[in-house]
Amino acid sequence: MTQGRWLLLVAIGSVLLIGGGLYSLTAAKPSGTDVGRETKMSCDMGISAAKAARGVTSTAMQPQAANNGTGQPAAKPSRPSGSAPEGMAWIPGGEFWMGADEFPDAQPWHRVSLDGFWMDKTEVTNGQFAQFVKATKYVTVAERAPRAEDFPGAPPENLVAGSVVFSPPDHPVKLHDHFQWWSYVKGANWRHPEGPQSSIKNRGKYPVVHIAYEDVLAYAKWVGKRVPTEAEFEFATRGGLQRKPYAWGDELKPGGKFMANTFQGHFPDKNTTEDRYAGAAPVGSFPPNNYGLYDMAGNVWEWTSDWYRHDYYQTLVTQGPLARNPQGPADSVDPSEPGVKKKVHKGGSYLCTDQYCARYIAGGRGKGEPDTGTNHLGFRLVRPPSR
Ligand SMILES: [Ca+2]
Fold this sequence. Notes:
CATH topology: paralog of FGE (formylglycine-generating enzyme)
Number of helices: 7
Helix content: 10-25%
Bound molecules: calcium ion
């Protein structure tokens, strides 16, 4: 078990509201959400503040040129013959610029070369996950009661199955304390995304949420696919565009059109839902990118297989001008929560706004503990070509 889930369950000051089945963690230590844990990162202040805080790292470490000095060709981009696996798109591989101007942990920009792969066109849906559970009787992490021996010091009343749910205040709040809008809800899991009273009835086409990393691995094994690396996810997001801020180009809303499910209004208290969705949307509700992939930006965050280190890109550029099929660092470091191991999340969610998070930007990076799902985190998978 990771320290973060332990922190969540032993948090002094947790309040159990039996009637609502709600654990308020207002006075708790950081835990449980990828957005929430980012309060010490400048990128969480919104785009303008993030750019202002970018400082000295952005220009000094830029690689000099594409594919400079390697003398080796890029990965072969040819599409395998035969029909595509159901629901998957061919991502041709090749070289691209990876990074972002807006976030210190996404710098410097660096060149990456990838082999081609198949990728799910959409986030994995409730309907797809239900098939897996029906076939295997799998029980997700959020559905299991935490064991006392895994969480020494946790009050017994806190050892209940549940997950982290966005529970916004009804008034404006300062953005430094994410427990003002995140709560640990007893009985929240993929079948009950907002808690025991909610369900996924008529939400078969919505992305499955409250999925921990081991749940992703179990589904992947069953379906014969694997989790994308961070580089694969970002390459696929960009759809062949080079160094653009968004998966579709230069503007967040070209011609006034919403291209992704994000948050409009005043975060977190007033969601004006100009893009029609306050929460998750059915997969494929917004236009696909150049590779035919939907919701690579927004809707729900998605797991990748990489461990998160804030300085990983800085390390990569010291190892050569071109990173080939990078798999992420060997360990995890997040300065905002030292000692807590996290995986990289990509794509941002329906809660990302230019006031906070903003990681629907193609090079943005999120992060979260492997044992922690939320109601704005899901996944999709990839498959190498069969040769
Ligand atoms: Ca997504």
